[in-house]
Hints:
Elements: H1 13-29, E1 37-40, E2 47-49, H2 53-58, H3 74-86, E3 90-92, H4 94-101, E4 107-111, H5 115-125, E5 130-133, H6 137-144, E6 152-156, H7 165-179, E7 184-192, H8 197-204, E8 208-214, E9 223-231, H9 237-247, E10 253-254
Parallel strand pairs: 1-4, 1-6, 4-5, 6-7
Antiparallel strand pairs: 2-3, 7-9, 8-9, 8-10
The structure holds S-adenosylmethionine.
Amino acid sequence: MLSYQHSYHAGGPADVHKHLVLAELLTLLTQKPRGISYLETHAGRGLYDLASDDSLKTGEAYEGIKALTLPDCPLAKTLANIRKQYGENAYPGSPMIARNILREQDMLHLMELHPVEYRHLRQNLMGDGVSLHKRDGYEGVFAITPPKPRKGLVLIDPSYEIKTEYAQVAEFTHRMMAKWPEATVMIWYPLLEAARHLELIEGLKLPFIKHEVGFDLKDGQGMTGSGLILVNAPYRSDEILQRVESQSAAILRPLG
Length: 256
Ligand SMILES: C[S@@+](CC[C@H](N)C(=O)[O-])C[C@H]1O[C@@H](n2cnc3c(N)ncnc32)[C@H](O)[C@@H]1O
């Protein structure tokens, strides 16, 4: 168990899809002075080296962020900050993107179970306003819900190594939203030939917005695209999704 390593996929087309939307959403949620909470069930290590052996082995970043010239947008600003600080081959994971956009009055709660990934996450993200947990993401986020500040976003970004995880995500989202009904939730899922994500979508039984994109990876291992679900999407999220489609048109095919 826990054999998935995100370093092989960092900066690939699926990451770019997820991170463009995440950066736009966090920018929108931080327009008002009131603080927000940002929670992640599956944080990863927070910072990746696109020149590492893992990254070069799949080459996914070359079909993702390295194949894209981003216009001025929240992810482009974050990337510029990260590259300035860590070098041209650095790529931020979702926790680092969030920390770049969030402010003093906001809180981050990050869960990561893998011991090595957690150790890196601590090195990369430890600081004021960041609470790090080496624990199961579903159990951990449920335990601290509803957080303070009460307005906020939960990112659910599992590796789906176990087939039952699609149903688990739907069940968890229900249970967590019963405790924190005003949460905005963003769920990432892969589009596979086996279409396992339908189990997640059918199990959700909540109003949501869905956004899917297609891509052709040289070694996609059956992954044909990337999907995002937004529950309690903020007003004007549809504009965000349209902007993301034009920002990423060189590498992602909108599927609706
Ligand atoms: C897809 S990666 C996360 C990527 C990250 N959200 C990003 O966008 O940069 C999934 C992570 O979940 C971790 N993980 C797997 N099962 C977990 C669990 N039950 N609870 C918390 N973390 C888990 C893995 O070790 C891996 O680092």
